[in-house]
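Hi all, long-time lurker, first post. I run a small reading group and we've been trying to get comfortable going from sequence to structure in the token notation. Rather than ask abstract questions, I figured I'd post a concrete chain and ask someone more experienced to write out its structure so we can walk through it together at our next meeting. Sequence below, copied exactly:
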Amino acid sequence: MTTVFRPAQNHHTRVRQVVLRVKSGPDKGLQIEVARQRVTVGRSAVNDLVLTDTAVSGTHLEIGLGEKEILLRDHGSTNGTLVNGIQIKEAWIEPGMTIGLGKTEIVFLSADEIEVPLSAREQFGALYGQSACMREVFAVLERVAPTDMTVLIGGETGTGKELVARAIHDASPRNERPFVVLDCGAIPRDLAEASIFGHKKGSFTGAVDDRAGAFEQASSGTLFLDEVGELPLDLQPKLLRALDRQEVTRIGETQPRRVDVRIVAATHRDLRHMVGQGHFREDLYFRLSVMEVVMPPLRERGEDVLYLAERFLEEFARAGGRRLTLDDSSRRALMSETWAGNVRQLRNVIERAAHLARKTAIEPSDLHLGLKQSPSATRGATAPSQIAAPAVDEARFAEPFKDAKQIVIDAFEREYFSRLLARTSGNLSRAAAEAGITRYYLRELLKRLGLREPAPRP
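-- Answer (accepted) --
Happy to help. Here is the structure in token form:
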């Protein structure tokens, strides 16, 4: 969803809405209106436009919305994709064009802006934000939290997905009951089933007593499935069965136990893509994504960077018995950072500065934001060998492994593609060919990493 920022006092913002109509084929007359930044079409139920045409692939194609351009990309379909009768892998499209897939023709009608409501508040639970994109998220959470609806939270590492889950629980009628966190990415594979469903004493080596699993521990409350995309494929049908039947069977037992849990799940991965690749079950995705909330990365939240930095600084300064401020150069440095680790990284930076600053005004040197790419590299004039590789921040070694690893990977990707753009003088087609990826995927990576793209084609 592409958000256009408006003044904070406004209670609405504008987003792009894609309108597609099936012109011919088994689903003739079907029309959808979807306000997403990425719209997918195919036979799988995870798509925005779901077709029954058997000649259409599971996830056949996707439409990506840029600020000014709209790109259609074939998703490696079996029978291919046509635009106005010409077979394509990727193509820029405009309203009125006809898209052919299988025995179906779709008309791309529009991608106009519509108004969506914003929350009047700048806080939801432990989440804070003045930007339109965050107040849009708050407006959704305010409506969803009081229900028992299953929620799937997406977003990059460090955007606050666990805070969202906790806030949903605290604002629900279950708030006095258990809130149980199950980190699917941190469970040893051989213990995953026992951690989720529990086990009976003696049911396997090491099972020295009876133990309730996460479902039973969370009964009458909320179970938060963190990084659900890491759940082993062979366990996914059992999880789906537990969700549908609201009952679990401990390992070593035959009698199921009734549970009453609300499920909130989170992942930094693209589950739709994983479904298309066969790495995540379609039916489980469908069950988890009754309501989907995507947390925006910090680099897209504008002045929220300074708003959050001030809040964190006040918190740490109060704990240390000091009165601290950010000087103007520090503010500029914070706003120019790309924040690979998002809000978590910002908090760590401010905490370190609050403890190590020698003056009452935080200076850029106190922030330790790492090495910056030189201005000449940004212009594409510096040879790749002259661009310094990013150093690993010492703070990474004090963080959870998966978070630290993701931040380091993001830093590598940012360095890799900075060098690639410099080497190819910003030519996206050439850069994509050298990297061995599609042009569309390269554009999405650059957007995620906060790297500058060449100006759009006229």
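A couple of things your group might point at:
Residues 1-8, 371-390 have pLDDT under 50 and may be disordered.
The first helix runs from residue 132 to 144.
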